Amino acid sequence: MRHIQHVSNDTGFTLIETLVAVLLLSFCLVPIVSILTRTLTITTLSQQRFTATKIALQGVELIRNKRDNNILCTQTATCPGGITDWKDGLIGTWEPDVTDISAYYPGQRFDIASNRKICISTQGGTLAGRYTYCDGSQERPLPGDFTRVVRVTDESAYSVAVECTVTWTGGQSFVLNTVLFKVTK
User: Fold this and answer.
1) Which helix (H) or strand (E) holds 168?
2) HEC assignment per residue over 59-119
3) d(CA 105, CA 70)
4) H or E stretch including 140?
5) What is the pTM for the complete model shown?
6) Distance (Å, rounded) from C-alpha 77 to C-alpha 144?
């Protein structure tokens, strides 16, 4: 009978081989983790800027609504309290709130800026999903503590300048500038 002898070779990794493998793996993983972290940061900033843009556009639209109501009442001579100019209650620094419907009527004013935090309305109906101010009832807070201030300044007899500044966590801000004109038929 023939016996076959097996020669035993260590087939495991040595400590040096293991350390070299870990070092090579870390050289490959560090850039990947760095790229993923940077991508996440850029995505978060992009989302915040997009939200700030929507909040600023809504602020300008609320001022435009007020302007349109003022123009309509002056053209139809239905303004309350002797309002004769389309700019009445429009010039100033405001924090217009989508839920404060009465502020859009002629003779009424928006709230004065107080750096209130903006939320998304969870109410039903026409206010659902709109940006409003947090009062703890039917709103969902936005991550980032957004605030909005709208400044309306007199430009000429037929125009006003609107500057809407939205700020959020970390000192980030977005500024939207536009000019609104008196429109007539």
Assistant:
1) strand 159-168
2) HHHHHHHHHHHHHHHHHHCCCHHHCCCCCCCCCEEECCCCCCHHHHCCCCCCCECCCCCEE
3) 7
4) strand 139-141
5) 0.77
6) 44
In terms of C-beta density within 10 A (0-12 exposed, 13-18 middle, 19 or more buried), how is residue 49 classed?
Answer: middle
Q: Which residues contact 129 (CB under 8 A, 6 or more apart)?
A: 120, 121
Predicted confidence at residue 64, as pLDDT, reads: 92
Helix (H) or strand (E) holding 48: helix 15-76
Q: What pLDDT score was predicted for residue 5?
A: 64
Please give the Cα distance from 77 to 75 (Å, whole number): 6
22-57 tens-digit pLDDT: 898 888 888 888 999 999 989 988 999 999 999 999
User: Encoding tokens for residue 175?
Assistant: 């500024």
CA atoms within 13 A on the CB side of 29: 6
Q: Facing residues of 167 across strands?
A: 147, 173
Integer Cα distance of 105 and 62 in angstroms:
11
User: What residue segments make up the domains of the chain, in order of their start?
Assistant: 15-181
